[in-house]
Amino acid sequence: MGRPLFTLIPHNARAWYHLRYRFAVVFFLVALFHQQHMYIVSRWALRAKYSPTNFNIYSGDLQPRFSIPDDQDSQLQDELVANRAAWKVLGKGCEGKVFAYKDLVIKTYTPGRSPFRNCAPDAATATKWPTEIPASLHFGGSSRPVDVSEDASVRTTNATYQGFLPVKTYFMASTTPGDPAEWHLVTPLLKGSNLNALASYLSTSAEASTFRDVDALYRPAFNRFLGSMQALHDAGFCHDDIKTDNIFVQDESHWVVGDLGNVRELLHPYHSSRIWKENGQLGDCRANDVFRTLQSYLKFIQLAVADQDTFNMAFYEGEEPMSRLFWWTLANAQSMSAEKLRERSITDYPDAAPRLEHNSFFRPTRPHTLLSLFSRQSAVRRAVDEALATRMPDKKARWWGMVWLFGVPDSGHCEA
């Protein structure tokens, strides 16, 4: 009488009911454990990604170079703020906007999806600033007027310093009255923009170029760019975000390392984080930079030619100088350096005859996908795009880390 329901259920059915109940409990506990594990490791990975870059660890105290700008900088700041209406928008994203004014580029930073990582020095309040500002001051230096007594070769109008953009000025100001102040970074304007823009121009020009023509014309610039990357690595830092958007074009033979907002020291915790590993990045961030540089260069060539299918097939044949360079680098990626790749690039120059060196590196395998049953060109195109991809998403870590609820983990507070 006390349990009429169970008296009506056969014994076998009751056993199956209890088994399902226990299975549901076990499944719930396992799922909860997995969720908590993913939450913890994802939050740790995000905290590592947004932890500050230590600019003092290898190069001594750089504090004097981060000092408040002088009177000449203040005059430039006043001019820029007074003529804000004349700024031309070049681009915008989740991190801020980019403007052009005369021969200058003004980059503004809006706190939001990507929080500022480094503490600003000499600040009256505990303030963080974009890592790109101290990184640009470190590698590009400050663009100051030189004394007229200096040698003429020093007083050239070269817009870069050893492959990095110099800083004209930096400051905090409101974009519109009443809005919170934002950080501004001002650097010289390079007419060539970046590799994406250059590739777009070449692909639509009246005289169509083959991938061999583009490689022969721009390989010297690529080799010089590797020299800039070697200087960055010798200083004890990695770029961590090399891609076609972030390689700026000064002229036909000179490219510039751009967007230093992700620069980190070699032993930064991000380089061993879950985000880094899940994106298939190399263990040595220097080798990773070098490989991404080559990927970006070859992606530039692919985008610059009208007949991309011919490029894709040549890439997978592994016989052209550019494709041999890629597959050789891939085979030696773990120990690759910018100087080693530069030497190989000079030796295996673009005008060299096509050949396949069976013993020097592994031959690329043909892409075998379901897509190849219908279109061989489409399968090769997709495989090349994957081989040259430089994506570094953190969406998975953001989801498991519940950034949508708790925000990005705080990497530490600044002291006034």
What do these coordinates show?
By secondary structure, the protein is an alpha+beta fold. The chain folds into 2 domains: 63-189, no CATH class; 195-267 and 282-391, Orthogonal Bundle (Transferase(Phosphotransferase), domain 1). The chain has helices at 4-7, 11-49, 71-82, 132-139, 195-203, 211-234, 274-278, 285-304, 308-317, 321-331, 338-347, 376-387, 395-400, 403-406; strands at 88-93, 96-101, 104-109, 118-119, 128-129, 169-174, 181-188, 237-238, 247-251, 254-257, 264-265. It has a 5-stranded antiparallel β-sheet with strand order 1-2-3-7-6, covered by helices on one side. Strands 4-5 form a two-stranded antiparallel ribbon. Strands 8-11 form a two-stranded antiparallel ribbon. A hairpin with a 2-residue loop joins strand 2 and strand 3. Helix 6 (211-234) runs antiparallel to helix 11 and helix 9 packs across helix 12 (376-387). The radius of gyration is 27 Å and the shape is globular. Mean pLDDT is 84; it is low at 60-65 and 145-158. This is Protein kinase domain-containing protein. One of its GO terms (molecular function) is protein kinase activity.
